[in-house]
Amino acid sequence: MLQKTMRWYGPQDGVSLQDIAQAGCTGVVTALHHIPVGEIWTDQEIKKRKHEVEAAGMVWQVVESLPVHEDIKRRNGNFQRWIDNYKISLQNLGENGIQVVTYNFMPVLDWLRTDLHYPTKTGTALRFEWDAFRAFDLFILKRPGVEKDYTTEQTEAAKAYFEKLSEENKARLASSCMQGLPGSKEAFSRENILALLKEFEGIDEKTLQSHLFQFLNEISPALEKSGVKMAIHPDDPPFPVLGLPRIMSHADHIRALLENTTSQHVGLCFCTGSFGARKENDLPKMFKEFGSRIYFLHLRSTARDQGGNFFEADHLAGDANLYTIIKLATELQHVENRSIPMRPDHGHQLQIDAAIDSFPGYSFVGRMKGLAEICGMEHAVYQERAEKGL
Ligand code: DNO
Ligand code: MN
User: Fold this and answer.
1) 3, 105, 319, 388: most buried, per Cβ within 10 A?
2) Is the pTM of this model over 0.95?
3) Looking at this predicted complex, what is its ipTM?
């Protein structure tokens, strides 16, 4: 069976550990958000969090994220020091029995949406719309050199979109695109983003890729020694944005990762929602090809339209066929005799969720609904297997 978990943002999360346990989870996915990026996660701080989770009757299953310092992504500044610290954190995590670390290699921003409250029949969902995003880039961020990234047609469409927005909706768009990093309540400012983007000038896809591979190969001895597996989260959205390169958006990127790293401890967080936002990504095919290197599963579904816009659909709807993925995961677990940790990724915000101070995408009732649907699908897979005598 998949190991059922939910992300917990720590003591600052309005959703409690007891809530997560009552939803039927046996574990949580969490991080030490209070430790500045790059600094060591000490044994003491890890133990403190671990005991807190265990006191609620669960285990700390996966770290998400042990963030990678921007210096490592650029390979300048103090990158060597941050890599040395990273190795120590991995060692400390391994000694405490935490064996999967999720991270991402997206420069500057983590996941990006243009609407955090897109109304659906069952609450509100996160949405990404290109016109809105380009409008943000062109008329709110006013990124230097932005014009050359878009065709005249795209710029015209973004302009028309922007002109129709009320002042209030312009502010909503800005705050959605500039929300802070996961687990942080501090938003980005325009100046902030522009300064960070400038530091990545001249770093293209190939360069960023080679920085990722070098980083992973450098920490591999620490991974082997500690038993920890690194599960990279895909880019979200899986397209270049703000002129930044993307290196984990499709199957070719995964192939390159596996070809250029040496340790079996280097693997994937297979996020069906993020990969699924890209039409060419055939999720079942990718799952079959890379299954043995999938160390963590994020299950959610995105609904795309012709224009490449998408919103996060219900777990049973949208373009990702989660039933097929759960079926493949079940087969893989049997063949490899292991149990893969899984969390329902973002959920809808239902009306009742508004009363809980949770992070965007991390509502309680919405995610619990997703989890229940996933458990139902998994149950059906096992039922079918039993009927076939498997
Ligand atoms: C998106 C979510 C993100 C993710 C981080 C990983 O699909 O799962 O919050 O956790 O980007 O580092
Ligand atoms: Mn995800």
Assistant:
1) 105
2) yes
3) 0.95
